[in-house]
Amino acid sequence: MSFAEWAGRWQETTTNLRPNTRALHGYLLRRLLLPAFGDTALADMAGRDAAIAAALDELIEAASTLARERRGRGDLRRLPVTGR
């Protein structure tokens, strides 16, 4: 199973998220994680520790930037949508 397949299944099973949280997770997956790891088999991810760490660092920075930009506005609907 690829990371992209797993991510799709994970999104389907996270039913207790608020709409803004779901939108943020989808955006971060499409923008950062799927381009880096989408085709990678989950079994192969253990051998890519450096790439995973770099993507996670970028994800954390992007999330922090988004939070600063959107803080107090509660407006994730304006996030750019990519990968649709």
Question: What is the gist of this entry?
Answer:
This protein has 84 residues and is mainly alpha-helical.
Essential attributes:
flat, mainly alpha, about 60% helix
Describe the protein in words:
The chain is mainly α. It has one domain. Helix content is about 60%, strand content about 0%. The chain is built from three helices and no strands. It is flat and about 40 Å long.
**Total number of distinct structural domains:** 1
Shape: flat
Q: What is the H/E order?
A: HHH
> What structural category do the secondary elements indicate?
mainly alpha
Biggest beta sheet summary: none
Count of alpha and pi helical runs: 3
pLDDT averaged residue by residue? 79
Residue fraction in strands:
under 5%
Low-confidence stretches: none
The Rg value, from CA coordinates, equals: 14 Å
**Helix proportion:** 55-70%
How many runs of DSSP E, i.e. beta strands? 0
Distance between the termini: 21 Å
Topology readout:
Elements: H1 3-13, H2 19-37, H3 49-70
